[in-house]
Design a protein that fits this description.
single chain; mainly alpha; 5 helices; about 70% helix; about 0% strand
């Protein structure tokens, strides 16, 4: 399924869910969870994993670590901002440690936003 179709399906499902009575919406959620369990989807962590920051780490390694630390985040939503920070490091010679600090703040901000919207 393309990303666009996925977004449309997600929006449509949320519209339907919003119009349903509470009990029916709860039944729909139970059914979705049942389907999810039948298809063997691994549950995604809801809390960040504890992956310590190494003493020496490249920006690319930090992005990988942060993606692993926050598996509940859709990295496509972070792509633009992450790319901007990577460009600052490569094109403007911004120190890796500063960029990694900003990446950690960025992922943390998106995680907190996820909790606020959920």
């Amino acid at each position: 399924m393309s990303v666009l179709k996925s977004v449309r399906s997600e929006k449509r499902l949320l519209e339907i869910l919003g119009r349903l009575p509470k009990e029916t919406a709860a039944n729909l959620l139970e059914y979705a969870e049942f389907l999810d369990s039948r298809h063997g989807c691994d549950p995604v962590a809801t809390e960040p994993l504890t992956i310590p920051r190494p003493e020496k780490e490249s920006v690319v390694e930090a992005i990988r670590r942060l993606s692993d630390t926050y598996p509940m985040l859709d990295t496509e939503h972070l792509l633009h901002e992450t790319g901007d920070l990577m460009s600052q490091h490569i094109m403007q010679a911004r120190p890796a440690t500063e960029v990694i600090d900003d990446l950690e703040a960025l992922f943390g901000k998106h995680y907190k936003g996820l909790g606020a919207s959920g």
